[in-house]
Design a protein that fits this description.
By secondary structure, the chain is α+β, with helices and mostly antiparallel strands. It is built from 3 helices and 10 strands; from the N terminus they run αβββββββββααβ.
């Protein structure tokens, strides 16, 4: 009887393992996590932590290689002194995933970030003010990272996204905000600025 149970358990594990990497299979993975964002260029803003949540779908081309497309709502926050700049994007990453060994994948791709909202709050002297108009509607980033999938379906993902296009509409500072844009100018300077973001998420693949 023990041998029968052992055989059943072994067969079930083999089926699960093969289904996970079967060519042509499609999986979905909701995930939640945190981000740590820094501004590039001549920005003086400090990195800050925010939240991210979304879902990712993956198509396995073969047992080792898969293509994944995600939709996330992601915070790219920065700070200067007591002023918090909370900027949120709809993040759409397309990544190629290569499984080095069972459960362990390295990945790289491109991501489109669509601006949702920006608020500056804290001891800025103006309270909670919407600065969204001075941000460009989109920016692009290059995500690279690594993930590990456990046999119970949990997925741990660590990736770093390099911003490759400008996020700010610098000409709109004074025109759109009537001088209040100088607060953001002090944080980001007057050169091209983008976001580099480190993210860690925990998901469940099914």
């Amino acid at each position: 009887m023990k041998k029968i149970f052992a055989l059943i358990a072994t067969a079930f594990m083999a089926i699960s393992a093969s289904a996970q990497a079967e060519a042509g299979s499609i999986t979905l993975q909701p995930n939640v996590g945190v981000t740590y964002t820094s501004a590039t260029g001549d920005a003086t803003a400090d990195p800050a932590i925010a939240l991210t949540a979304g879902v990712e779908g993956m198509y396995m081309v073969n047992e080792k290689f898969g293509l994944a497309l995600g939709v996330n709502y992601t915070g790219n926050n920065t700070s200067t002194n007591d002023v918090i700049n909370s900027t949120y994007y709809f993040n759409l990453p397309l990544t190629a995933n290569y499984y080095v060994t069972e459960g362990l994948a390295v990945k790289a791709g491109v991501a489109l970030n669509i601006h949702s909202q920006t608020k500056v709050d804290g001891e800025s002297g103006i309270g909670d003010f919407d600065f969204g108009d001075i941000y460009k509607s989109t920016y692009f980033a290059i995500p690279v990272g690594v993930s590990y999938e456990m046999t119970n379906g949990l997925v741990f993902d660590l990736r770093y996204s390099f911003g490759v296009s400008d996020v700010l509409d610098m000409k709109g500072f004074d025109k759109k905000l009537h001088g209040l844009g100088t607060i953001l100018s002090a944080m980001y300077g007057d050169k091209n600025t983008s976001f580099n973001t480190l993210s860690f998420t925990v998901g469940y693949k099914f």
